[in-house]
């Protein structure tokens, strides 16, 4: 039976798209099985996502195995990877040998399967990639699964001719020697110095010009070996057998074409199969997943104020503003302007004061939560706006539901995403919320720097609220609805995502696009049974 293995780091935005892909392909191809070998602290979410996508289809769910090789060790994503990576080679060898495996977290024993025909690994899973290559060599192709904004990934890892860094690994090693900073040292200084913060103009496919320092608009709430992680990601991209990108052609076409050009230069294939959204989106009500308080809040606000009246505020599962007063000012402006909102503070670095909690409760128009079913909220008719960090998963969910955005980017692919969406009139970017040494430098787009005060943040958000309620807001909502319709077409019979995933399956598995097995599905079994 054809078998695909997926593995990742503990980043939910990287895992969720594959859960949707696995469920969709397993439903369509009854001969296909999936193994999702994940860090323990993401397993429950993955199981819930697959179950939600499959609804009550228990038979299909049996062909999607989800387990881990190490118990949950920490909420910190860098620490959580340590034990997982250490245990990974043993369980991977068992998987390719077709012997039973035991989930280290639940104790569930899974029967052995034929070896995977192809492995798909998160682009930050460089350590797993090294382990797998040491065990299965070139017998099993390993594809890089890239989940961020396509143009930003070119910026980080792509060729200089496309606006990229070139050989990031070599440049980072040279910068490490020059600055005397070990690559494994925690913090941002080394990789920022490598990519540049001097004011060089960066032009990426599909994104208006930016200065290089504009990619770092915030002080991060965490420290980790970021340079080491990025160096590993570049080396994995260079050594993998090909690329699967979750980007959507309808708004990232230029960058997708550039990705394909880049990988063709490396003699590799790149497939863009996004957006990966729930198949039922727009057809069936999304599940609130036990968040009854959120469901009641949305229904109550809609009954009183009508459709599109709620703002969702969420910075994902990791990021959080380093200056809590800026967020407090925004919340106070929303209460002052009588703008209903849901504020999700899921990040382990989130800090919400008791004073703010009490103010929101007394206002009667806000709801605070440590976890939210984001797709459910965005697809609910009461929701009209999304204040987001512009992580790729969040942006895809918003556009898939026709919801325009207010952008508060932090790092990685978020700043370029925010600017591109703003240039397409799908978002309004908050500029006064920028903090740190680069906030006082002028932006390429307007020559202005952040004033660095809470008062400036307050003035900006009040202006943005007025824009959202005026003609600009109407135009943004119309644009978001158009993008929603384009995203719906991506997985139709002739849609770009459908064509690309079919091409991948035909080339790297024993399936044809109708789900039939076209060749020996255990073509590597004899090698591993020697």
UniProtKB/TrEMBL annotation:
What Gene3D superfamilies does this protein's entry cite? Glycogen Phosphorylase B
* Keyword terms of this UniProt record: Transferase
The record, for InterPro entries, names: UDP_glucos_trans (IPR002213)
Pfam families (UniProt xref): UDPGT
Q: Which GO terms describe its molecular function?
A: UDP-glycosyltransferase activity
List the PANTHER family hit by this protein, alphabetically: UDP-GLYCOSYLTRANSFERASE 72B1, UDP-GLYCOSYLTRANSFERASE 76B1-LIKE
Question: What protein is this chain from?
Answer: Glycosyltransferase
């Amino acid at each position: 039976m054809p078998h695909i293995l997926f593995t990742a780091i503990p980043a939910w935005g990287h895992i969720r798209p594959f859960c949707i892909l696995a469920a969709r392909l397993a439903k369509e191809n009854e001969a296909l099985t999936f193994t999702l070998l994940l860090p323990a602290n993401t397993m429950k979410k993955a199981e819930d996502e697959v179950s939600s996508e499959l609804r009550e289809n228990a038979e299909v769910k049996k062909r999607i195995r989800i387990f881990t090789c190490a118990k949950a060790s920490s909420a910190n994503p860098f620490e959580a990877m340590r034990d997982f990576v250490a245990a990974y080679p043993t369980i991977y060898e068992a998987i390719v040998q077709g012997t039973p495996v035991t989930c280290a977290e639940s104790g569930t024993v899974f029967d052995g399967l034929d070896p995977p025909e192809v492995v798909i690994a998160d682009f930050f899973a460089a350590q797993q990639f090294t382990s797998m290559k040491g065990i299965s060599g070139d017998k099993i192709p390993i594809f890089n699964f890239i989940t961020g904004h396509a143009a930003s990934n070119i910026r980080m890892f792509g060729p200089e001719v496309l606006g990229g860094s070139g050989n990031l690994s070599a440049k980072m090693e040279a910068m490490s020697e020059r600055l005397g900073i070990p690559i494994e040292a925690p913090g941002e200084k080394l990789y920022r110095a490598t990519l540049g913060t001097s004011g060089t103009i960066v032009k990426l496919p599909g994104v208006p010009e930016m200065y290089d320092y504009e990619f770092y608009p915030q002080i991060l709430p965490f420290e980790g070996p970021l340079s080491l992680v990025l160096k590993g990601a570049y080396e994995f991209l260079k050594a993998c057998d090909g690329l699967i990108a979750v980007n959507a052609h309808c708004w990232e076409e230029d960058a997708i074409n550039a990705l394909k050009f880049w990988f063709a230069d490396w003699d590799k294939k790149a497939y863009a199969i996004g957006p990966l959204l729930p198949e039922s989106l727009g057809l069936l009500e999304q599940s609130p997943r036990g968040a009854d308080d959120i469901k009641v809040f949305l229904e109550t606000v809609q009954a009183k104020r009508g459709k599109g009246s709620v703002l969702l505020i969420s910075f994902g599962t990791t990021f959080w503003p380093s200056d809590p007063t800026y967020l407090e000012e925004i919340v106070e402006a929303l209460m002052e302007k009588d703008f209903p909102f849901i504020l999700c503070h899921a990040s382990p670095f989130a800090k919400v004061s008791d004073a703010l909690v009490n103010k929101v409760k007394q206002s009667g128009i806000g709801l605070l939560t440590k976890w939210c079913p984001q797709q459910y909220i965005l697809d609910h008719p009461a929701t009209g706006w999304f204040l987001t960090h512009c992580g790729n998963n969040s942006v895809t969910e918003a556009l898939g539901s026709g919801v325009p955005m207010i952008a508060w980017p932090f790092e990685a692919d978020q700043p370029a995403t925010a600017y591109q969406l703003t240039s397409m009139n799908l978002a309004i970017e908050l500029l006064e919320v920028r903090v740190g040494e680069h906030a006082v430098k002028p932006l390429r787009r307007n020559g202005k720097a952040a004033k660095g005060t809470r008062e400036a943040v307050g003035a900006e958000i009040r202006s943005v609220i007025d824009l959202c309620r005026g003609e600009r807001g109407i135009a943004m909502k119309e644009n978001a609805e158009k993008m929603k319709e384009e995203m719906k077409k991506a997985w139709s019979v002739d849609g770009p995502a459908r064509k690309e995933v079919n091409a991948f399956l035909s080339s790297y598995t024993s399936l044809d696009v109708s789900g039939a097995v076209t060749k020996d599905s255990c073509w590597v079994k004899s090698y591993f049974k020697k």
